[in-house]
Amino acid sequence: MQDMIDTLLRYGYIVLFFYSLGGGMVGILAAGVLCSQGKLDLYLCISIAFIGNTLGSTLLFILGKYYKKDILPYFKNHKRKLALAMIKVKQYGIFLLFIQKYIYGIKTFIPIAAGIAKYGFLKFLIINTISSFIWALLLGYLAYIFGQSITFIFNNLSNYPYLAPLFLLCLVGVIWLYLHNFSKK
Q1: Residue 55 burial class via C-beta count within 10 angstroms: exposed 0-12, middle 13-18, buried 19 and up
Q2: Which DSSP letter does residue 91 get?
Q3: Which of 6, 15, 20, 122 has the most C-beta neighbours closer than 10 Å?
Q4: Stated pTM of the model
Q5: Which residues of the chain have pLDDT under 50?
């Protein structure tokens, strides 16, 4: 376990960048917790997550805008979701591009759908840059602030080894129920 933590600390910034390319919130949250313990630099983590998230969403937009015919076969099982995302991009525009960073399941579809829906590149780039900055700043600071509390909870869970599997099982169950109900909509 300690080897894994040492590896994460050694390559944490690189892992955070690649994880942020896909819009992963867990990466910036974990980095924020590690920053609260003094293991990583908070401002560097926020900057890396911001750059990674901006670049990842922009690349997805470019894929949708310029390589539509090449990527559509990969979405043959998700045509309804993609069509719905395109309609929502046209309806809600700026608001949807901002809020999609926080919703699991649509953060990949929305930039692609915006590109397919012929959303303006410069407009998307500006909105995406601002929303990525707010995303990284907000999640980074929240994780940093609550890092001490999270560390306290996990330290107490280690005192009662039978609670850890129960806690993880409950957490997986709650996430599964959320995703199951979300995917029905």
Answers
A1: middle
A2: H
A3: 20
A4: 0.74
A5: 1
